[in-house]
Write a structure and sequence with these properties.
The chain is built from 7 helices and 4 strands, in the order E-E-E-E-H-H-H-H-H-H-H. The chain has 241 residues and is mainly alpha-helical. The protein has one domain. A two-stranded antiparallel ribbon has the order 1-4. Helix 1 packs across helix 2, helix 2 packs across helix 3 and helix 2 crosses helix 7.
């Protein structure tokens, strides 16, 4: 029986090499493209008619739009509205990536790879930092100076704040990566018990049904957590809170 971690292996679909560099099209790249296409179909098809009284599909699209818009407004304020397209795209991309990875025998969860989640988190971190520097200039660095702190403790507090700020992409990426890996590994382990135990596999099968429901919740929750933290980081950059 295959290892529970075998489901996360990268496989080459179209081998491509440029000199010494391997730029092959892999299963991870395929599911990234599939997630983007799925989001586009969901949005375009849902808003195709644009009826005053929305149908079910259009209602789902409008709910996603309103959910992210309210999240951004509450977490980062009115000044952050110009960044809504990016935040909305980020949320929908991660959400569809997590949900597509739940399909048995077909899905591949590329958000279970730390390289992918760290790349997204680093892009958010660099972008938010550049926004803060562009808007506030050198005043942006006051973000690392706690207000009202004793002067004697200021050097230590500045170092702590700086380390905390620089660790954001690590914590943001590990949170998504770890939850995806843990959940899918548990499903694979209990699935192995069902096959091994045969008729006695009813109990682990019941656990699988419960875990699938939990994993669907985690898939949505992790997209929300990644996005809400991005909004909070954006709020810090815009308002120096």
């Amino acid at each position: 029986m295959a290892s529970p971690l075998a489901q996360f292996e990268i496989t080459t679909l179209i081998p491509l090499h440029v000199g010494e560099y391997n730029i092959s099209f892999t299963n991870s790249a395929f599911f990234m493209a599939l997630s983007v296409m799925a989001v586009m179909v969901f949005m375009v098809a849902g808003m195709r008619k644009g009826a005053m009284v929305p149908g079910r599909w259009q209602l789902c699209v409008e709910m996603c739009y309103g959910f992210v818009a309210n999240m951004l407004h509450e977490a980062a304020g009115r000044d952050a509205r110009k960044y809504f397209p990016f935040v909305f795209s980020l949320f929908m991309f991660i959400l569809f990536a997590n949900l597509i990875g739940m399909f048995p025998y077909f899905g591949f969860t590329f958000t279970s790879h730390i390289a992918v989640t760290f790349a997204m988190a680093s892009f958010v971190f660099v972008g938010v930092t550049l926004i803060g520097l562009y808007k506030h200039g050198f005043k942006f660095f006051t973000l690392f100076v706690p207000k009202g702190a004793p002067l004697a403790l200021m050097p230590l507090l500045v170092v702590i704040e700086l380390v905390s700020y620089l660790s954001r992409p690590i914590s943001l990426s590990v949170r998504l990566f770890a939850n995806m890996v843990a959940g899918h590994t548990m499903l694979k382990v209990f699935g192995g018990f069902v096959v091994t135990l045969g008729m006695l596999g009813v109990v682990p099968f019941a656990f699988i049904v419960a875990l699938i429901g939990l994993e669907l919740l985690v898939a949505c929750l992790q997209a929300y957590v990644f996005t809400i933290l991005t909004c909070m980081y954006l709020n810090d950059a815009l308002h120096l809170h």
